[in-house]
Design brief:
708 residues; DUF4034 domain-containing protein; six-stranded mixed sheet; mainly alpha
């Protein structure tokens, strides 16, 4: 919007927050085929929760199941600050027919604009702001400034790709106009305001436009304001890039202060000094910060300066890491860099530098090839085998489906690819012996491999036990490993002995398990000692009944799964019937009841359909989560990105021993699962063959609306 600045509002309208304006507009949205869900609470945290809220609302109000709807969730709500001011675009998610939702939302309330993100994206609501004749905002208007910087923004990894075969996108994004450049440079004049300068520095250095005088002026302000932790200021990578580009005399002192996080920037400036810096960080790599990027940067700079062959360079770095007794994640990071480079090399060789066609096929095959490459150290082959564990199914499917075209996509004949898949299948268990997933990373990655542990091999059991016994294993790792051992009946006195010295000091800390398939490790340990009749049980039960800390009280009843009896069952049911928050209580009651009655938990869950006090959406998760009592799924709701939940939903829907109502609940969950709705979101992505099979199963299911 350009021209004269709009007049400032006054009175009560001026004091009314953006959130109040948006809510007032939101309440006016309605239509015959469109519903705007109420604004979110913390319980609507994800898109899955939004779709669950829609289903619940439709059921309560008798709204047709196919009605289109829009909503925002609690993560989107972060666009509002505590005062209700809109600090960024508000993402509006939706379900149903895209055109119907677009018509229902319209243009937005006065002073705001709704931007259509297309059939695969969210709608975005933001303020309408003033622009001058050059398209520049008023520097005093934070919303206008934010929107302008968004428009000229280039992500650092695109502006400075560490793979030199990929050009910077700065030119593609369009050069700054003279007016834009002047406007940005003025924002860096004295006095320096680091907060305001942050994104300006990023935008300018993405185009290599920070001057020597500017970086020299910004450096002391950065060091003074963030002396304790330089990386707390988000503009640091751009400023460090500028300091290196201008060869500022203090730049290497800054690199040392920043630590391993500087590795990604150093990759853009190959030198022996850069190599020495990232090598030192890589050799003392510990989980956190930029440790993984330091290892990857070490390999890249070693290649650039000493050994161009990627495998030989990786072998040299791996040998040094092994000699330094580096943790497993460092070697995983090295393999990740090696495979990413192979994909980039394939892109360059195939003449498809930006094309996605063939990339996933090649990446899957590359994991299998590296796992079988005898010239690589065993640790790197094991890291490759972890990736190939699921990727090999893609190799087989792609080769069979594409036939001769597979060679065009990957450079490898389909028959050879099938032979490689056979060789990997024969070697897999040996390569993965005494290995397991990274326990300290993103919890979603651990949930992605949960399906691999539906049954435990002796090697997997040994690895899980070793991790529980390792005093370095943290809360997340203990939760993952102990839950699997307990559920499979493989946990025992050794695990209790290992955790006995740690439970008071470490396991009594809060650890949220809302989105995990495992419980708090102290819950699982308590169940274990109760089952074993171990003396520790008395101490743990005393701790659970104390008034503090407060976070533990919702979890206490979950320990009743250990050594169950009728009194525990009754206390659990009283909580469920009271309507209190369910953090695994119904799941615990069903599993407890199954142990007492000697009955499969699915049958017990089936009989709860329609029971007073039992929430349908909680029962849906329990019905599917207990399908395999040897590996219950404890996530708070059906995991739409999880293969484990998809397979359990199929299992329940196909169980003719259950009621039609129970099977329909599972079939409905399967129909909403992203395996069918958005398969590209799953990790690993389903193969074409898996998708064809899944769609055929759903459409031909006897209870499906489209079935026989």
């Amino acid at each position: 919007m350009s021209g004269a600045r709009p007049a400032a509002s006054s009175g009560s309208a001026q004091r009314r927050s953006d959130l109040a304006h948006v809510k007032a507009w939101w309440r006016t949205l309605r239509g015959e085929d469109f519903v705007a869900l109420p604004p979110p609470t913390r319980s609507r945290y994800t898109q899955s929760d939004g779709h669950g809220d829609a289903a619940e609302l439709f059921g309560e109000r008798g709204i047709a199941a196919g009605t289109s709807f829009a909503y925002w969730h609690w993560q989107s709500h972060a666009a509002f600050d505590r005062s209700g001011a809109l600090t960024g675009p508000l993402n509006l998610h939706w379900g149903g027919d895209h055109a119907t939702v677009a018509a229902g939302l319209g243009d937005g309330p006065d002073g705001y604009r709704v931007v259509n993100g297309g059939p695969q994206g969210a709608f975005r609501l933001d303020k309408v702001t003033w622009r001058d004749a050059d398209g520049l905002p008023d520097p005093q208007d934070p919303d206008g400034v934010r929107q302008f910087l968004d428009r000229v923004w280039i992500a650092p990894h695109e502006a400075w790709p560490t793979d030199r075969r990929r050009p910077s996108t700065a030119a593609e994004s369009g050069p700054l106009t003279a007016a834009e450049s002047r406007w940005l440079h003025r924002r860096l004049e004295d006095p320096v305001d680091l907060t305001a300068a942050e994104r300006v520095v990023q935008v300018l250095e993405a185009r290599a436009e920070l001057s020597y005088d500017e970086v020299a002026r910004l450096l002391p302000a950065w060091r003074a304001e963030h002396a304790d932790l330089l990386t707390r200021w988000d503009g640091w990578p751009a400023l460090l890039h500028g300091l290196l580009r201008h060869e500022h005399p203090e730049v290497w002192d800054v690199v040392e202060q920043v630590g391993p996080e500087a590795a990604g920037v150093l990759c853009r400036f190959p030198s022996e000094r850069s190599l020495a810096a990232v090598r030192a960080e890589g050799l003392q790599a510990r989980r956190g910060g930029g440790a993984s990027s330091a290892v990857a940067a070490w390999w890249k700079l070693h290649r650039a300066l000493h050994e161009p062959d990627p495998v030989r360079a990786a072998t040299a770095v791996a040998e040094e890491l092994r000699a330094a007794d580096a943790p497993a994640f460092a070697l995983r990071a090295l393999f990740t860099a090696l495979r990413a480079d192979a994909v980039q090399e394939w892109r360059a060789r195939s003449g498809r530098p930006d094309a996605e066609t063939g990339q996933e096929e090649f990446a899957a095959l590359a994991a299998v090839r590296f796992a079988l490459d005898a010239t690589l150290p065993r640790e790197l082959r094991a890291a490759a085998a972890e990736k190939a564990y699921d990727a090999v199914a893609r190799v087989r499917d792609d080769a069979a489906r594409l036939g001769p075209a597979y060679a065009d996509r990957t450079g490898t004949d389909a028959a050879e690819a099938q032979a490689l898949a056979d060789r990997f299948a024969a070697a897999r268990d040996d390569l993965l012996a005494d290995t397991g997933p990274e326990l300290t990373g993103y919890e979603g990655a651990l949930c992605d491999v949960w399906h691999r542990y539906r049954t435990l091999s002796p090697a997997q059991t040994r690895w899980l036990k070793d991790r529980v016994a390792d005093p370095e294993t943290g809360m997340q790792g203990l939760g993952f490993c102990l839950e699997l051992l307990y559920a499979h009946g493989a946990a025992g006195e050794a695990e209790v002995a290992a955790l006995l010295p740690r439970w008071k000091r470490e396991l009594t800390k809060q650890y949220r398990t809302t989105y995990t398939e495992w419980r708090h490790p102290l819950v699982t340990l308590t169940c274990l000692v109760l089952d074993l009749g171990h003396p520790l049980a008395a101490d743990l039960q005393t701790w659970w009944t104390r008034p503090k800390p407060l976070w533990k009280h919702p979890l206490r009843l979950l320990t009743h799964l250990g050594a169950p009896d009728e009194a525990k069952a009754a206390e659990l049911w009283d909580h469920i019937a009271s309507g209190g928050d369910d953090t695994g209580h119904l799941m615990t009651w069903v599993l407890l009841r199954a142990r007492l009655d000697g009955e499969h938990p699915l049958r017990i869950a089936d009989r709860l359909i329609g029971a007073p006090g039992v929430r349908p959406y909680v029962l849906e998760a329990v019905l599917i989560g207990v399908a395999d009592p040897a590996q219950p799924l404890w996530r708070y709701a059906v995991g739409r990105l999880s293969r484990s939940w998809w397979r359990r939903a199929q299992q329940v829907a196909d169980d003719t021993g259950l009621s039609a109502e129970a099977r329909l609940i599972a079939l409905g969950a399967a129909g909403r699962h992203d395996f069918l709705r958005a398969p590209d979101r799953l990790r690993p992505t389903p193969t074409a063959g898996e998708l064809t099979e899944a769609r055929a199963w759903f459409s031909h299911h006897p209870l499906s609306p489209t079935g026989p």
